[in-house]
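Pasting two entries for a bug report.
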Amino acid sequence: MSARPGSALWLLRHELRMFWYNMLSSKNGKEPRGFQWKLVAVWLVLWLAVHAGAWFVVGLVSGDDSELPRQLVLAASVLLVATFLFMLSSALKSSVEVLFDRGDMDLLLSSPLPSRSIFTVRLAGVVIGVASIYLFFLAPLAHAGALRGHPRWLALYPVVLGMAAIASAGAMLLTLALVRWLGARRTRVVAQVLGALAGALLFILSQLPNLAVQTGASEGILVRAARSSAGIPADSPVWLPGRALLGDPFAAVAVGVVALLAFALTVTLTHRSFTRGLQLAASMAPVVRRPAGELRFRFGRGLASTLIRKEWRLILRDPQLISQVLLQLLYLIPLLFLVFRKDDAQNLAVGAGLTLLCGSLSSSLAWVVLLAEDAPDLLSASPADMRTIRRAKAAAAIGPVLALVCLPVMWLTWRAPLSGLLAAFTICGVTLGSTLIVMWVGKPGSRSAFARRAQGNGLSILFEMSHLFGWGGLAFLLPYTASQSETGLLTAVGVGIACAVAFGVPFLAWIFRHRIR
């Protein structure tokens, strides 16, 4: 791609080069940055495997292009809606990165390039970045369909790019509006949280049919959607996205026109707001106001309470960490609804689900609090007792987890006392054990490396996962055993194995505490 230096096309070429460099370069800090052929080979092998699966799936569902099956159109519509929700989540994160985390915007804005060109290229880069991962997994369906005699399925390319453009335009508009309403610092937190919400919304929507209190067998969401949409005409605009994905010319053109209009209107109406947002981001250092009156220093709190409050404040100030932790908390919502159902099987599922959720969440918070300390040398050199510091940090990681599940466990105990008490026991056990395992065999790192905390420490991950599933098995088997008049041999063996894993793994972690690091 040849372009005049300084033009928008030249800037777009640079944006694409940076995108592929980040995608195909090694993320391991021990290896030199750059194009990695081994990583490219892994992606190619994975893509060929996806093509093989797509060939099999297309052979099962494909039909005559002249008459698209209603079930196929429904499945394509559901797939596109789910893809759009994940696209919106990715676009929000990319918009925050463009606005706050890229370090080259000051140089671009001070150059002779117009702000409109800069904003157009950056928005196009967001669109390409959002669409690439979904094209990686969905394009094999179009290729298999074309080879099986359905060339219209190649319309998947412009449809996915169009949906990515619509999602990116909406995400950029929302981000710039938040900058105007809330300011740059609060926008970063809110946008990260909204990105997590958009990513988990599909899971919550898929569980809505199962959350209603009802009698009789439950049905899948696709079965319910097919039954409720039986009266909608085939040419209704509701089916437009699904028909576009399957190659309907009119529907594909409609999606493309809407995407181009959304992209053009976003660039035209907001490129000046983009510049103002960048100026706010450059000066988003907090200004601390001096309190009125005489300064008073309070030294009455103890060391433990001071450390606990300090850790909680650091977590609340980290937007990326909040979004990643919030994504785990969203899976608590279906469990909260299941508590209200009068079903013994649901009580077993609630106890096991809460136990697994608390174990995962406590491991994440324990790593942040215990192993991602910003000033470990300062704490080590302080006159405070290190055992007190570790206990306070462990309490700071355990406290929020127990507080979050306190109300559902109390309600479960009121409805089913034995199930609630056993759930409380397994929740306390998995929370304490997960925290101790992280403290003993976890690998220290920085808060920015939260998503990569498992790299290079396979034994710690093995301990955490084994311990989590051990307590999860206990959370399911103990109430089940208590509700039976007689305990079978397989149930007794399962309880014994789960107990051995749940209580034995922390002991092994204590033995290996000096060998991991």
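Entry 2 (this is the one that rendered wrong in the viewer):
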Amino acid sequence: MKTKFQETISRANEVIFRYPMILTMALLASIGAIYLVETELNEIASYIKFTICACLGISLMFALKMLSQRIGKEIILNVLGILFLIGFYFILPDKKNRFTEVYAYIIAIIALLSHLLVSFVPFLEKDKELRFWQYNKNLFINTFLTAVFTGVLTGGVELAILAVDKLFDFNFHDRIYRDTFFVLAIFGSSFIFLLFNDKGLNNLEKDGTYPVVLKFFTQFILIPLLLIYVTILYFYSVKILINWQLPRGWVSYLVLAYSTVGILALLLVHPLKEENAKSWVRIFSKAFYYTIAPLIVLLFTAIFTRILEYGYTEPRYFVLLLALWLLSIVIYFIFSKKATIKFIPVSLFLFGAFALIFPYLNAFSVAKRSQKAELMDILNKHQLISAGKINFQKKVTDTIRNEIADKFEFLAERKQVEFLSTLLNEKDQAELSDNINDGTFYSINYSIQNKFSDVNITVNKRPYEMNRLVLVPEKQVVEIGNYQYLISFHRYSRDPQKLNDDQFELVDQLTENSSLKLKLNSKEEIDFEPQIIRLFEENKNKNGNVKVPEIAMESDLGKYHVKLIFSEMTREKYADDDKASMYYENVYLLVRLK
């Protein structure tokens, strides 16, 4: 037992000293995630940025570690990695509500690129095909084992904490379960993964016996799935030819899914290709790429049908880019006599980098230019431009109005304020600028819709359409006046707050039971729901951001007189739903003795 314990400690120490940067990033990511769910709204953006960069740093630093084990220069590579993460931190926005979908795409691409880098960066030299496969196979297996071990460990520790809490009446705060999850899920999984990787590159690329389970998994799971996919796709292609109709948009995702599963299957059984001249893997690999060729025609037809009708957006750009990448894969493996599987991750990395940073032709530049052109085409086609500005008094259908509003929101999120301002008068320009500065892009959509005064309703309101009303006080300064105390509550924090020997608790059930109660010592309470409902009723025919003098309500509670002040309050209601969702972000409680 003692020997096993010492061996475990020794292995842990080896991992710590061999992979310090990776573990540091994992620890920082865990800490960032914990603070992220516990901070006030005005501080949360910095924690989002910090946590994202730390999470990206885990895979990036692992890739650089593998490269350093091949070429040396570990310190220089680590410095370059840290400088990249610092630079990326400052690229991200400094306010939470400015984290638009554009940044989601950027973060997703960077995450993909960092993981692709792990897969090939130690093998940029030629003639290392088998070692490249062994390396990635071991990474794949270690990732799977890490997921299993981490899941069991996290569940076991959480259950142990629960048992101690219930059996010994410790009354742990719910926070301990959440924090434990973050630490084990991020730092713990990274540590376990590094334990499996042992000394790193030398162990990962070492020749080993081919795992029979991979052959079984490919033959009896992946290949049957491929047969199902390709049968559906070919039958659908025949249906298109018979009916002579354009393909549906979602067929693109099925073609990409078929291609991805097929490429994964080929990679998993790659070494078996050389077993004999009539290897089923050799036959399958050639047949697979030929089956993709007709589907690529279907894929491009589906993509360009949507692009020609609605223009480019980032998702359509990425689907097109994946189609081009898939085409390059098919051409390469059909016509190249010395094809290498390293081409797959390296080419995908280059396509991803192109989409992210290539001047003028990157995803974001193309999407902005395309949607600007689409907006101007709609305005000119329906003669809505007068003296260079949009004529909001001219009659339009609700479909056209909504398209214009959607494109305004799209371009506003991408900081095209100068272009959009040229289409509006001075008053509307100021409103647009305020919304962009505040990060309330959804309000721009509602605002543009509301500016059209003569709208012909062509269709009934669709059930998934949502009415969103956000009440915002004209003044964000909280005036304390003759109150003695100020207590801050947050929407996501339900912790009771103590004042002297008394305890105040805000019980938010606005959406569930239309109730917002303030409790004193769990005995006395006041429900502010009637005042909240009255406030929304006064603005019931409005949507978007609506400024009001203040969002405040007051009452007596026990020996105190209290006043609730909200920084903003939102109500959302879908067309087919009688019930509305109501929520807030920050709320301040002013208290004084009666």
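Dev reply: Rendering is fixed now. As a check, the viewer should reflect this: The longest helix spans residues 129-168.
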